[in-house]
Amino acid sequence: MTRDVAVTGIGMITPAGIGANATWQGLCSGQSFSSARDPLLAGLPVDLSCPVREFDACHHVPRRTVRRTDAFTHFALAAAQEAAADAGLTPATADPTRIGVVLGVASDSFTGVEKVCDRLRSGEHHLVSPLFLPRILPSMAAGEIAAHLDYRGPNFTVTSACASGGHAIGVARDLIRSGTCDIVLAGGAESGRSPVTAISFARMGALSTRLHDPAGASRPFDRDRDGFVLGEGAAVLVLENLNHARARGAAFHGIVAGYGASADAHHPVNPHPDGGGLQQAVRTALSDARMTPADIDHASAHATSTPAGDVAEARALNRIFSTAPPPVTALKGSLGHALGAAAAIQAASALLTLKHQAIPPTANLDHQDDAIDLDIVRKAPRSARLRTVLTTASGFGGANAALILRTP
Amino acid sequence: MPLTYDTLVSVLAEVTGVDEELITPQTTLLDIEMDSLLLVEFAVVLEERHGVDLADNLDLTQGSTIADLVQALAEQSPNAAAAPSTTAAQ
């Protein structure tokens, strides 16, 4: 049995654009999509966000579904439909019981939680919407994809905070490698634009407070970075058994060649200072791909723009690539941090990077931190001969995920 | 806002995502895929916006029509003034 798993479809909804192509163009523009005064965060000390723009859920999802579901589910459904169409999936493509859906979602969406709390306090229990719970649960996005596209195989949601999307793709890959599924739609979906999420991260000191310069707030690896900007979106990949994909003549975007997962076993929310767990995840992914560090042509970093996190990740990359780390980019400069969706967006972008043979720049990298010794792509896309991309992700709880994507 | 037949249809359309023009007195709950969850959601919206207090669950089945729903609402709601009438229906 082949160990490699093909990627035959990509779908993306991000602040940079609606669809994978629009997202790619947005990333290559080098601009940041963050802005201030998000109406959803009105009145909070930090109201910066990176919203998905010009997205009308009713253009992608039946109105009936739109009304009872949340933004993260809308993004997931739209991205899944794009990915399925891109892969040429039809009801005849595969046995629907062998098509799975595995998404990474970091948390409940919290939409409407204030209202439920008000009703509880006032004793008006009969006025709590019965749709509240099915609206906010992380597992709903994967379930709605199954219901709308009739995929009846394994269906579950992986949660490891900001690494969720990476673990979802890794676990989905394993479902195919083990022979459990022929096809799995894998990725992540989230919206961080909730007052509960925003105030909670703000109280931890995790968010940028660069209110005077919203477009410059998310600046990974820059010496003036001061935290991340909440983002949102979804990315879904169609992962497919190599032989199954070949037999139906599907076009390949690339191969999931390696996956590694690890725990820092260190602290609830602080990264290990040397990115110890992250190094371990990358080494596991390299071993899984039967590659050495020298085989990696480019790294797409987790780099959220927090002072401690970016340094720890840079140290980890320096340790792994002891001679010369490959060129690095950090997409969160453009996109902000889409939490559970972020690692899936990185993986999808990495496949587009392989397709276009160009590395999108790290937005807002004006003065690289002296403590960060990496070759980081900035200002404009960099053309390069690329056969492999490493993507990394770390989350609260100390979980790390590394993926290695390669050209077909 | 008083609860007229048209308002009721508008709330039904909102909750189910079905076009208002497709909802007639003869339409069944099954036709507009009004399941038990949506029926409760419908009751929440009616009370929040129109003060229609539905103390008990509406005694309806999937085969019940919109006319049945209107009738059940009129019987259940103590807020008689707000109770809808079918006379507005074409």
From TrEMBL, chain A:
Protein's name according to its UniProt entry: Beta-ketoacyl-[acyl-carrier-protein] synthase family protein
CDD domains attached to this UniProt entry: KAS_I_II
Domain Ketosynthase family 3 (KS3): 2-407
Top-level taxon of origin: Bacteria
GO BP, one annotated term: fatty acid biosynthetic process
Gene3D superfamilies: 3.40.47.10
Family, similarity comment: Belongs to the thiolase-like superfamily. Beta-ketoacyl-ACP synthases family.
Lineage, top ranks: Bacteria, Bacillati, Actinomycetota, Actinomycetes, Kitasatosporales
Listed NCBIfam families: PRK07314.1
SUPFAM superfamilies from the UniProt entry: Thiolase-like
From TrEMBL, chain B:
Lineage: superkingdom: Bacteria
Entry keyword annotation includes Phosphoprotein: yes
Molecular functions (GO terms): phosphopantetheine binding
Residues of the Carrier domain: 2-77
InterPro entries per UniProt: ACP-like_sf (IPR036736), PKS_PP-bd (IPR020806), PP-bd_ACP (IPR009081)
Record-level GO BP terms: antibiotic biosynthetic process
SMART domains reported in the protein's UniProt record: PKS_PP
Pfam families named among the record's database cross-references: PP-binding
UniProt keyword terms in alphabetical order: Phosphopantetheine, Phosphoprotein
Protein name as catalogued: Acyl carrier protein
Organism (species): Streptomyces acidicola
